[in-house]
Amino acid sequence: MFGKKALMDNLGRNLDRARDKRNALAFKRDALASDVTTLSAQIAELEARLSDEKDRLERERLGGEIEGMKKRLKDTSTAFAPVVAAICDATEAAAAVIPEAHELNSFLLSVATEVDIVIEYLLRELQRQTEAVRANHAALDLPQSVNDEPEPPKNNDRLLLLPAWLRRNQEVEKKGAAEDRLSTAA
Fold first, then answer.
1. Among residues of the chain, what percentage have pLDDT more than 70?
2. Is the pLDDT of residue 7 over 70?
3. 41: pLDDT strictly greater than 90
4. Total number of domains in the chain
5. pLDDT tens digits, residue range 134-145?
6. What is the spatial distance between Cα 186 and Cα 162, in angstroms, rounded to a whole number?
7. pTM of the model
8. How far apart are CA 128 and CA 168, in angstroms?
9. Confidence band (pLDDT; 50, 70, 90) for 159?
10. Burial class, 91, CB count within 10 angstroms (exposed 0-12 / middle 13-18 / buried 19+)
11. Is 72 within the bounds of a domain?
């Protein structure tokens, strides 16, 4: 009997050790699961912060690009006004010899007025877009070539084409003059 009792005690101790190991492993598993959950939450938080920072930097970049557009438009428009004024002065002087120069002068003045109106509108819209982007109310869609400077025009690109409305007016005047000649001839 003594052998059976020792065997039973030995099996009982082995069973207790196995249960202890199982419990220890279960505790480690639970601790690891808790650590994994904690790390997953930290990773999600860091990813969200990284995404927010990338978004902020992109908005800052976009706001800067829009500000650059505004500055370039202002600078170019301030250079445009003196050129138009100089051309107007020159056409006014030429009007003493060629009366048709008055037409060019009035055309230039109307173009300058329209350009001023449109540029003011564009500057207001660019300012509104800048504020919307920086306040996180606008989409971050802007073409990548925004900072690219336009190519300077080549000499053959400097042809002055009259606007369609001016060409039409000249065609109507020519037809009217031709009709007048026909009616006076008849």
1. 73
2. yes
3. yes
4. 1
5. 888 766 555 554
6. 35
7. 0.54
8. 37
9. very low
10. buried
11. yes
| The residue type at 59 | R
Q: Two tokens at 80?
A: 């445009």
CA separation for the pair 90, 112 (Å, rounded): 15
Amino acid at 24: A
**Nearest Cα to 166, choosing from 174, 155, 157?**
174
186 in a structural domain: no
- Residue 136 gets the label, from left (phi > 0), alpha (psi -120 to 50) or beta, of left
Q: Is residue 24 in some structural domain? A: yes
**CA 139 distance to own-chain centroid:** 8
Q: What is the DSSP letter of 161?
A: -
> What distance in Å separates the CA atoms of residue 130 and residue 140, rounded to the nearest whole number?
11
Tell whether 74 is covered by a domain. yes
Amino acid at 102: H
Whether the CB-CB separation of 107 and 166 falls below 8 Å is answered with: yes
Q: Residue length, the chain?
A: 186
Give the residue numbers spanning the domain of 34: 2-138
Amino acid, res. 95: A
